[in-house]
Amino acid sequence: MSTKTNIKEYPLYLNGKFEKIGIKKLITNPYDGKPVGYAYFADKKIASEAIGHAGEGFKKMKSLPTYKRAEILDGIARGIEENLEEIARTIALEAGKPIKYARGEASRCIITFRTAAEEAKRIGGEVMPLDWAESARNRMGYTRRFPIGIIFGITPFNFPLNLAAHKIAPAMAAGNSIILKPASTDPISALWLARLAHEAGAPAGSFQVLPASAGDIQPIIQDERVKMISFTGSAGVGWSLKAKSGKKRIALELGGNAGAIVDKECDIDYAVQRCLMGSFAYAGQVCISVQRIFIHSEIYDDFVGRMIDGVKKTVKVGDPLDDEVMMSALIREEDAKRVESWVNEAVDGGAKILAGGKREGSVYMPTILTNVKRDMKVYKDEIFGPVVLVDKFDTFDEAVRKVDDSRYGLQAGVFTRDLEKALFAYENIEVGGVMINDVPTFRIDPMPYGGLKDSGVGREGLKYAIEEMTEQRLMVINRS
Length: 480
What we know:
Elements: E1 9-10, E2 12-14, E3 17-19, E4 23-28, E5 35-41, H1 44-63, H2 66-82, H3 84-95, H4 99-120, E6 126-129, E7 139-147, E8 150-154, H5 162-174, E9 177-181, H6 188-200, E10 207-209, H7 218-222, E11 226-232, H8 235-244, E12 249-253, E13 259-262, H9 268-280, E14 292-296, H10 300-313, H11 333-348, E15 352-355, E16 359-360, E17 363-364, E18 367-370, H12 377-380, E19 387-393, H13 396-404, E20 408-409, E21 411-415, H14 419-428, E22 433-436, E23 452-453, E24 456-457, H15 462-468, E25 470-478
Parallel strand pairs: 1-5, 8-9, 8-11, 9-10, 11-12, 13-14, 13-21, 14-19, 18-19, 21-22
Antiparallel strand pairs: 2-3, 4-5, 6-7, 7-25, 12-24, 15-18, 16-17, 20-23
Helix pairs in contact: 2-4, 2-5, 2-6, 3-4, 4-5, 5-15, 9-10, 13-14
């Protein structure tokens, strides 16, 4: 006798309602291919309707008092806290993220919304005397920040909850409305946020979640009523969006091939531990994963030996629901095949595999490479997989030049006890952030986060995103 398995359905969130409309698609677990649920994807008609609803939602949001916006954001944070384990399991199942990191993402998301609630209360302005000249006698100036309107957020698969929160939370804190398009591979986590926002009292149209294909969101990208696009994803797609955005504001977080410097004056055990995590956690599918490590020649052999040993002993690969697993499958098998081809290309060009270098379906084993040339893809492009290259340096200046030798500039890491070297790295590596005595993978959500060069424009981090999602307006009063 056969039994029928009931697969849960997840409606899209349109104008304050959960609607089973559009195109129904099956979401599967990247690790074992098992069904996670059906999600409803918007078509162009639904996307167009969402813009009108967002316009009405903006009118409601900008008229809400600060305390009410803060209450809604706090309510979402409480909802995540109350459902943390179920949300983490959702992330693990649909994104293939190891459960311990999925819990970490959900916990970070609580901080994101709570910080946004506090920042909503701090959106202030200035009072300034303007009588610097005779013509401005008796005049005073006042500034305030005002919400800009409808924001369109586009998020990637790797942090399906918290990167969505980094679009939603500052937009709502500032009094804007937002339409969110989550990644097509794992949209269910973002629909959790829709449910919690709905329960927290977000006005209809103020926040909508529309899973959709790239083609079906074109009406939102092109519509002049949409005032800003906030995108996290690949450089190619991001810069293409910028070219199409016209007069819209745009914020782009486009990833990188982050480098770390390990100086001889550092805690080697700690540096190895952090570099293992930064290189291989979640199979390297993080914009600030460690991709290039430059190690002082005096400690190179010791450090690399410990890294190889750490791959064998501490980097557990397997089912994302296993509490001990550090990395699982890549999001799609084609991504694992791409990583495999890049490594094979490097080996054909003279690179040497020190650990890993094998693929099993969607899983690519944690890999360390050496003898990598700067024109190889594994060096110059973003691999977005569990692969790290190691190289040596003799002088700190040389190490800084090597880290900066990239078209990307998101974050960098420097392990050193020398303050002058730390400052030199900070002043001379062209990135959005330099992490001293840590890997570039470090991020705490309130901090300013974003990159230079091909890593994008703009900053996330609640206070900084709110500034980008508002406009300063001046009033001058003539008291005479």
